Amino acid sequence: MTYNSFKILFVILTLAIAFLGWQGAISWLWIIGIILFGVAILSYGSATLQSNFFTPTFSKLKEPNELILTFDDGPHPNTLAILEVLKKHQAPATFFCIGKQAQQHPDILNQIISEGHIVGNHTQNHSNKWGWMRSKAVRYEIEEATKNLESLSGKPIHFFRPPFGVTNPRIGKVLRTLPLKIIGWDLRSLDTTIKNPEKLWQRIKPKLNNSSIILFHDTQEHTVEVLEKTLEYCQSHGIKIVSLADKIETPSHA
Ligand SMILES: [Zn+2]
């Protein structure tokens, strides 16, 4: 279901319940039920990027035995250790970078690019207020990051990942006007929450055979060790690490 089809369904259900309530056929408590249903669907759509509720999102792979590596929230001094592991295994990755971080670490941003990886937009400030921002602020966060990432790296930016994977009608509306592909994930490592590398590895390992887009954070020190294990596992189990650029057509860069 998308936001537009939900709106139509919600209006029809509300009118039907209002009519039946007016006729005395059902209790007015149904109105509370339909409101709770609406809130639940909107909350799910906001928090679940792969539901494609507010904006079409690339979050799944079709072919078996493949893995796309994505890293959020850098560039960060720890990104260098991540890059070293990727280089050792000749594995391509996409880094969703924060504009502000890129301004602080332009050399690391350029190393990501020169080692053949993709840089995507993860907003200028990664604000905790992302889900509550007005359209103008949402647009600024995205456009400012694109401007800074492009001028620092000299490469066009084609991909975007919203902070926390959160979208809503305002964010969806702004994204529809921008030449960016929205990239989600279907395997969340939870590396910002699970700090024990062994526990983290045990969480990820059983899910690696499902052909996933995995979400890591290059800001996390213990992610380096788990990445190493992930790449060794993929190598020994015939899982190919593929690049986002091989799977998705890049939009024309206006
Ligand atoms: Zn993030």
UniProtKB/TrEMBL annotation:
<keyword id="KW-0812">Transmembrane</keyword>
<dbReference type="InterPro" id="IPR002509">
    <property type="entry name" value="NODB_dom"/>
</dbReference>
<keyword id="KW-0858">Xylan degradation</keyword>
<feature type="domain" description="NodB homology">
    <location>
        <begin position="65"/>
        <end position="242"/>
    </location>
</feature>
<feature type="transmembrane region" description="Helical">
    <location>
        <begin position="6"/>
        <end position="22"/>
    </location>
</feature>
<keyword id="KW-0624">Polysaccharide degradation</keyword>
<keyword id="KW-0472">Membrane</keyword>
<dbReference type="InterPro" id="IPR050248">
    <property type="entry name" value="Polysacc_deacetylase_ArnD"/>
</dbReference>
<dbReference type="GO" id="GO:0016798">
    <property type="term" value="F:hydrolase activity, acting on glycosyl bonds"/>
</dbReference>
<feature type="transmembrane region" description="Helical">
    <location>
        <begin position="29"/>
        <end position="47"/>
    </location>
</feature>
<keyword id="KW-0119">Carbohydrate metabolism</keyword>
<dbReference type="InterPro" id="IPR011330">
    <property type="entry name" value="Glyco_hydro/deAcase_b/a-brl"/>
</dbReference>
<dbReference type="Pfam" id="PF01522">
    <property type="entry name" value="Polysacc_deac_1"/>
</dbReference>
<keyword id="KW-1133">Transmembrane helix</keyword>
<dbReference type="GO" id="GO:0045493">
    <property type="term" value="P:xylan catabolic process"/>
</dbReference>
<protein>
    <submittedName>
        <fullName>Putative xylanase/chitin deacetylase</fullName>
    </submittedName>
</protein>
<keyword id="KW-0326">Glycosidase</keyword>
<dbReference type="GO" id="GO:0016810">
    <property type="term" value="F:hydrolase activity, acting on carbon-nitrogen (but not peptide) bonds"/>
</dbReference>
<keyword id="KW-0378">Hydrolase</keyword>
